[in-house]
Write a structure and sequence with these properties.
The chain has helices at about 45-60, 90-95, 100-105, and strands at about 5-15, 20-25, 30-40, 70-75, 75-85. By secondary structure, it is of the alpha+beta class. The termini are far apart. It is globular. Strand 1 (about 5-15) and strand 2 (about 20-25) form a beta hairpin.
Length: about 110
């Protein structure tokens, strides 16, 4: 996975530690989510959480977990390529209200 192979479509979200963009991987035409975390803005504890997240994503193969395509360090940031999911949990909850535990567990 290389940054130069990704074309940004739009920003889809922003959090405390970074931004998530919808991108297209040009060699495959696959739409992905690219989570970009500038390392100069995160504390040591957050860096450990990022490493833990990367290990978990790399070792998971569950169909109910967002697919992990790879990660790389470039231009002072960690970039994580993930399966792009349309919508988000905030939208679902705003539309339907709180979800029952049995639904979340599934």
């Amino acid at each position: 996975m290389r940054l130069r192979d990704l074309t940004t479509i739009r920003a889809v979200g922003q959090g405390v530690s970074g931004v998530v963009n919808e991108v297209v991987h040009e060699p495959t035409g696959r739409t992905m989510a690219l989570k970009v975390i500038p390392l100069d803005t995160v504390q040591k504890e957050t860096r450990q959480q990022i490493l833990s997240e990367l290990r978990t994503l790399n070792n998971s193969s569950c169909p109910n977990i967002v697919r992990f395509f790879g990660a790389f360090y470039e231009k002072g940031s960690i970039s994580i390529c993930l399966e792009f999911m349309q919508g988000d949990l905030h939208e679902v909850v705003a539309h339907t209200g709180p979800l029952p535990d049995r639904v979340l567990a599934r």
